[in-house]
Amino acid sequence: MNIHKTALVHPDAVIGEDVEVGPFAIIGPDVKIGKGTRIGARVVIDGDTQIGENCQLWTGAIIGNLPQDLKFKGEETRVVIGDNNIIREYVTINLGTGSSGATTIGDNNLIMAYAHIAHDCVIGSNVILANVATLAGHVVIEDKAIVGGLTPVHQFVRIGTLAIVGGGSRAAKDVPPYCMAAGTPIRIFGLNTVGLQRNNFPKHVKAQLKRAYKVLFRSKLNTTQALKVLEKEPNMSDELLHLISFIKESERGICKE
Questions:
Q1: Active-site residue numbers?
Q2: pTM, two decimal places
Q3: Structural domain for 41, as ranges
Q4: Is 222 contained in some domain?
Q5: b/e 156-176 (16+ beta carbons within 10 angstroms → b)
Q6: What local confidence, expressed as pLDDT, does residue 165 receive?
């Protein structure tokens, strides 16, 4: 453990092996930090916050502060962050509320400078949030999704697996898995074919998703009718099943082409 002499670390905080804590950092009593994590200068970690192993928290990040929600009445809630996350300068991550109890972040994510993750958000793994991406409460970002810089995401919106939201967009509706979206209002612009290729999706899966995209966004069918067509697809892949279930479970509606 390497704790700078100017850092304020509460004696009840649980600090793992080989953790570095930089100058003027503040770590509260209910914080747990896994081994190998690096805490930069002036980072503040408060509340019931658990941070995994080998994370990097850069200058000025604030983790575990109270949620910016008028309904919050001081109930006991948490922030849970997994392993190998990079959290850059001045990122803010708030505690959950009584609604779900926690704000959770998976593993291997890159959260760039000034991004904000509000109360009760659920972030998967291998996600990229670019600079000043701003997530309202209860947002869900699934694995391997990318949210571009300066993009606000409306509360309760979901960004699907391997989806891309272009920078400067306004995400007020769900973005289906494997799709690219951008604009204000946000619109779908095609499949994330590069992402499918880089993640070594089998040829038959890519073909299924391309057919599904055409049925959903380029036919004259409404969403309900399109889903009925897709559910008749033979030998459905897990990816197609996920796409269908994501859309069926949408509460805010999905963005369209």
A1: 119-120, 137
A2: 0.97
A3: 2-138
A4: yes
A5: ebbbbbbbbbbeebbbbbbbb
A6: 98
